[in-house]
Amino acid sequence: MNNKCVIVRGGGDLATGVIQKLHHCGFKVLVLETDTPTAIRRKVSFSEAVYEGEMTVEKDTAVRISELNEVDGIWQLGDIPLLIDPAGESIGLIKPYAVVDAIIAKKNKGTHIDMAEKVVALGPGFIAGKDAHVVIETNRGHDLGRLLYSGSAKANTGTPGTIQGVSRERVIYAPISGELTVIATIGEIVKKGALIAKINNEVCVTATIDGVIRGMLRDGFQVSKGLKMADIDPRISEQKNCYTISDKARALAGAVLEAILAN
Question: What pTM did the predictor assign?
Fold first, then answer.
């Protein structure tokens, strides 16, 4: 067992906050991802390394690897290795001290309590003491980041967090399935009704509110109908937030660190 190794399943924006925190605290972190990540906050998601080969978020870099024997070399460089392994097959080979399920899939995608000495799961879909040693609440509000040693996190509300009184309107879902053509990129300021993307070069997707494009799937991505494809932040003055880890991600990161270090 590697007592300093933590495997994090998932490399989206919330997982990236967790990964950064563990990396900064001296843990050797290995990230496991799918071959087609769907994080929309791509500028702050290590999962982008799947497509780009590497991804830097706030000066920390994740590097995609193809074999487990590359892990040590990436660690020695001070970077974070990322492997395409959605089933988590490498967990049994690495034998990490801890496994963190940060996929935020709202359901368990194969994580079980016997994977490591410490198994931590974020959000609904897990039972503490059965699927993981600790489950962490991800729902915004008073209990965000609370460590649960029994029971489950709150069920998915299906409603995005509220920013300046705006909730559902700020998140955009693909109206049809097809190839996405991005017109308004992350960080761009848009007006309500402005064209921000097309699907199959025929169906137009427009901004639902005035604000900043905080998240958008990659150009050319094959979206399915109903998939979350974009996020608009109504706080135009907070444009820089598109490129930094969020308050929620940092709160969850602290909770994961506590869960791993606590007796």
Answer: 0.94
